Amino acid sequence: MPQRRISHLRLVRENAELRTRLAEAEETLHAIRTGEVDALVVSGISGDQVFTLKGADHPYRMLIEDMNEGALTLTTDGVILYANRRFAEMLKAPLEKVIGSAIRTWIEPADYKMFQSLLRRDATPTHYRGEITIQASDGASVPGYFSTTFLQTEEMPGLFCLVATDLTEQKRNEAIITAEKLARSILDQVAEAIVVCDAQSLILRASEAAHVLCGQNPLGLPFAYAFPLCQGEGVAFSLAESVATGNRSRAEVSLQRNGQVKNLLISVGPLLGAQSEQLGNVIALIDITERKRAEVELRERDHELEAVVMMSAALRLTRTRAEMLPIIADHVTNLVSAASVALLANDDYANDALPEYVQGVWANDQGKHLPRTSSILRQVLVHGTPYLSNDVPNDPAFSFHDVIPDVRAFVGIPLVTHEAVIGVLAVAGRTVFSEQDIRVLSAISDIAANAMHRAALHEQTERDAAELAQAYDATLEGWAHALELRDQETEGHSRRVVQLSINLARAMGIGAGELEHIRRGALLHDIGKMGVPDSVLLKPGTLNEREWEMMRRHPEYAHTLLSPIAYLQPALDIPYCHHEKWDGTGYPRGLKGEEIPLAARIFAIVDVWDALRSDRPYRQAWAEERVRAYLQSQSGTHFEPRIVDAFLSILAISAT
After folding, report:
1. Distances (CA, A) of 240 to 225, 231, 278
2. Where exactly are the structural domains of the chain?
3. pTM for this predicted structure
4. 412 forms bridges with which residues in the sheet?
């Protein structure tokens, strides 16, 4: 099928016709606006409709054109037949584009259904009103208020007349009013004091809390007058810097009202306008009085705890009550600025209290016995409860002679252990004692009581241990003396070798703790001879081989006798090993060199020295020079060489 061809001439003709029709439409619109046209025929779905525009209506048309509200007429099909300039301005579109367009184009889709409900065709003219959001040509949403009326006469087949009001400014004002109410509500309900000032620091707004803090209505007052704040010691707080710079700032300040000082945290920020210009300042005042008080108490508690810990540490380094008491008194004096401190011991047997340690104005009372019949001591010692008086001069519990000048307060706190009240911590003050002071002193008294009780137990234990040690030593000396009584030829030998052994051990670098074991070992070195028969031990002549064998067993007897006694086990080396020799030829085990305990090596040379220098039934005592020479000859065989040298040096020193 051949394609249809459109001639160039036909296209030119159709274009000319379109231009002619457009020109006619523009002339018609101009005639309608100027009132030159009396009637208008509009073709639509229902056919042609004739609208009359009488020339007599021209003044009314001019009134509508110039009104501040938008005005328009719609056909029943929703086509805008007429619109004034104000409605076009609301749509932000040219009037030519508005007239002839569908009203649906300019209504927000979400509101169109509601808009249709306003277009009712009632028999009698009735106004229907509602808020409808207009969609402007630039896409902006414009809040509008529409009033619609349907008119139908013989001359006018059917027409909707609408008046549209731009609610943009009204909505903006309503938002401002709402925001204002919200701000007012916030200011009334907020717990903090909020103040709004202008550029001259005059108060424009203030929350309810700010009214209370000020003590009067602060509105219109200068901020510095309504709230005379201090920053630091007597330095007045000023908004000048914040006003000048526009910077935000925070600071801690104080406010004095009715003799009371409140601590406040002030926060200052700029009050900005629509163009970000600074209009004034917004100030928040937060009461931090309780927080500051808590911080002070916390610091004081930290200081108290540190002092108590330091006192505890110092007391742990002491061993006796005499060392502890001055430490306790010093810490009490430093913590509560005491005029005097006394530590009293409770004496149940004498029914009184004895000031063991006194510091300060009561120093002359140290050592004086105080009867427990006084009301104060009876309460503290007998009932175990503290006694506090912050008005000593007028306290009937204190007699005239008890009152010390400048002492206003007194507190007596019982020193209690798990067993009983062991004493009293008595403190005098020139000022009253606070609850905090009593709390600190109570903590100190607990620590002091436990430390003093521990020291008393330690001292008693040391006394018991010393007495037990003396009893042990007396027993050992009794054993040694009994052995000497049995063997009269060696009488005095054990006592002589003890001191000489200690001197040599000290020269060899033996510590003080080991010297006591050497002393006991030397004292009991021949205790094993208790097991040797008298026929052998007391034989005046030379012993035969069998008798020597019996004699050589006395170190083993000593070990058997002493090893079950834990107290003497550290001293066992000398009784058991003093007959061993450096070259390994000794007895009872044939130990060699450093296998032999050092205490036994030291004692061996002392034992031989004293034996050779003493008379025996079978020989006379050797001369000193001969014994020296013998000891030197036995160096490296019987004795350790370095011990021989040390011993001979001691002898040389003692000879001079």
Report:
1. 14, 14, 13
2. 8-166, 173-294, 304-440, 487-655
3. 0.45
4. 387, 426
